[in-house]
Write a structure and sequence with these properties.
Blueprint lengths: L11 H4 L3 H8 L3 E6 L2 E13 L27 E6 L3 E8 L6 E12 L1 H7 L13 H8 L18 E4 L9 E4 L17 E4 L19
Antiparallel strand pairs: 1-2, 1-6, 2-5, 2-8, 3-4, 4-5, 7-8
The chain binds a DNA duplex (13 and 13 nucleotides) through strand 3, strand 4 and helix 4.
Length: 216
DNA sequence: CCAGAGATAGGCT
DNA sequence: GCCTATCTCTGGG
């Protein structure tokens, strides 16, 4: 149980930094999701950085659209997108307004409200799978486009906030290439975009991007 | 246990 | 026509 005194959200200045600084600093922090059915707390174990218009993998690469408008807004807000016709994924906007950088929340450990999360993740075979993967994480937390633009730094009983918690010590942070992003075929890109907690069982397995085969 | 195939279907080029 | 993904089924080691 999280003490009421520990429920203060991270300040907006935390997110108003270069995305490659913010991303590893988010590991170990607690995301507190407040729903009408109860709270769910998640300890972040895997994240991925997207560097706005400079980054071909970013939704903001080709400029502002109705879908990605939140990315161009102030830091500390939640960007939620719908993908593959079924799933939602959740990002935190970073850097100054207009820069359109963000951190994709890829995996975490449910530390409170697991019973509620299980009702949303019926296919999970164990609790480590509840939020192992970005769309699983959003599903477990009950996050969809209705929460796009939510201010994670607001005071009061907000639906989403990131608590200071206990950040993962730098010695426990690992980094590597992003998963599943087209155009990063392995060793070419030296940038460490993906960060995770060493040896944590809730981190999603690495999947290199595989172009779809053409039907014969 | 792992890898691959097929399905899902909105947003954007 | 591809994409910041996942589920279920199938076949191999």
């Amino acid at each position: 149980m999280i003490a009421p005194s520990d429920r203060t959200p991270l300040p907006r200045e935390f997110f108003d930094r270069p995305v490659l600084e913010v991303a590893p600093d988010l590991l170990g922090r607690t995301l507190l999701r407040t729903t009408p059915d109860g709270p769910i707390a998640l300890r972040l174990t895997e994240v991925e950085a997207y560097d706005g218009p400079n980054d071909p993998g970013s939704h903001a690469y080709r400029g502002r659209t109705p879908r990605n408008t939140v990315m161009f807004g102030p830091p500390g807000h939640v960007y939620v997108y719908f993908t593959y016709g079924m799933w939602h994924c959740m990002n935190l906007v970073c850097g100054p307004e207009g820069q359109a950088s963000g951190v994709l929340l890829r995996a975490g450990e449910i530390t409170e409200g697991a019973e509620l999360a299980r009702t949303r993740r019926l296919s999970a075979r164990n609790d480590k799978e509840l939020a192992k993967g970005p769309a699983r994480l959003a599903t477990a937390l009950g996050v969809d486009r209705a929460l796009d633009g939510t201010d994670a730094c607001a005071a009061g009983d907000t639906p989403i906030r990131i608590l200071t918690g206990t950040p993962t010590p730098p010695g426990q942070v690992r980094s590597g290439p992003r998963t599943g992003v087209a155009g990063e075929g392995g060793d070419g890109d030296a940038h460490p975009w993906r960060y995770w907690v060493a040896d944590d069982p809730t981190v999603s397995p690495y999947r290199a991007h595989v172009p779809k085969k053409r039907r014969s």
